[in-house]
Amino acid sequence: MTKRILVAGNESALLNAVELEVAARVRQYAVAPIVGRFSWQGGGRRVPEAEPVSTFGTGRPDRVAGSGWNPGSAISSRALILAAENRLGPIDRAIFVCCPPTCPLPLAELGPADIEILVNEQIKGWLLLARELTGLFAKRQQTSLILAWHELPAKPGDRNAGTEPFASLTLAAFRALAGSLLVAATDENTVQGFTSSESGNDSAFASFIFKCLDDPKRQQNGKIHRFGKPVFLSEVFGRN
After folding, report:
1. Between the CA atoms of 2, 94, 14 and 151, what dihedral angle is there, to the nearest 10 degrees?
2. Strand pairing partners for 7?
3. How do the domains of the chain map onto residue ranges?
4. How many angstroms separate the CA atoms of 23 and 44, rounded?
5. pLDDT for the residue 91
6. Rounded distance, CA 58 to CA 24, Å?
7. First to last CA, the chain
8. So what's the pLDDT on residue 100?
9. Residue 235 phi/psi, 5° resolution?
């Protein structure tokens, strides 16, 4: 059966790698990127409140993604799904890619606008989109939700360790969301998590994800698949 796939995630090498794998399997799919709007990323790119929303790919992973989806808006998240289904038909697979941007500033130097973007787009946005999709999938059978993220904590002594709470907040929220969705997985509505501890190896990580998805023997509904070396709690929390 041909999957009708929606991919959502941070503009990143991992999102591009995942899209490339999707493009190799289906003729058309929907992509909803979270664009960089922080002050150090040249912020100020406003996203209309209810603009409907996504970029549709046809096998061009190097394209310039659109910016119609406003993750912090419940209206925009709903419009994203409606627009994707109007183009593709009923969505039966969604892939969330969480690869938060690196913050070059110490926490004390972050402006209020940057903190608001962090909460709205990197935390609240995932909750809103998951709410819309899980409500929709609950009315259907043979759907799947895939959550993928990097585990890239700052190591003790790292010169960027002072900015690590920025990414940690995003990842902690995404992991908590993934955990709740994995517990709720059913035979009709499957949920799988994929996590990587390796940086700079996004193509291999994306390939690993789809090898598991393509092979029924490697699928683990309600479970997390781990790629690369394990990350220990001492590394996550920056302790010796």
Report:
1. -140
2. 31, 95
3. 5-236
4. 31
5. 93
6. 10
7. 50
8. 84
9. -80, -40
How is residue 78 written in tokens? 């709903």
Report the pLDDT value the prediction gives residue 28, as an integer from 0 to 100. Answer: 85
Please list the residues that pair with 138 across neighbouring strands. none
Rounded CA gap, 211 and 207, in Å?
6
pLDDT at 124: 94
Estimate the share of the chain in helix, then strand, then coil, as percent rounded to the nearest 5: 40, 15, 40
SS3 63: coil
- pLDDT value for 164: 61
How many whole angstroms separate alpha carbon 152 and alpha carbon 167? Answer: 9
Q: State the 10-residue block means of pLDDT for the chain, 240 residues long.
A: 84 92 89 81 48 43 51 92 89 94 78 87 94 94 94 54 69 95 95 90 94 90 87 40
User: Which CATH code for domain 5-236?
Assistant: 3.40.50.720
What pTM did the predictor assign? 0.83
Question: Which ranges constitute the DSSP H helices of the chain?
Answer: 13-23, 74-88, 112-117, 125-137, 164-183, 202-214, 233-236
CA dist 103 → 47, 134, 144, 161, 167 (Å): 21, 31, 32, 11, 8
Where do we find the tokens 């998805």? Answer: 213
Determine the distance from the C-alpha atom of residue 72 to the mean position of all C-alpha atoms in its chain, rounded to a whole number: 14
Alpha carbons 187 and 202: distance in angstroms, whole number: 29
CA torsion 97-194-176-90 (nearest 10°) is 60
Give pLDDT, residue 2. 62
Q: Is residue 89 exposed (0-12), middle (13-18) or buried (19+ Cβ within 10 Å)?
A: exposed
Residues making up the chain, counted from first to last? 240
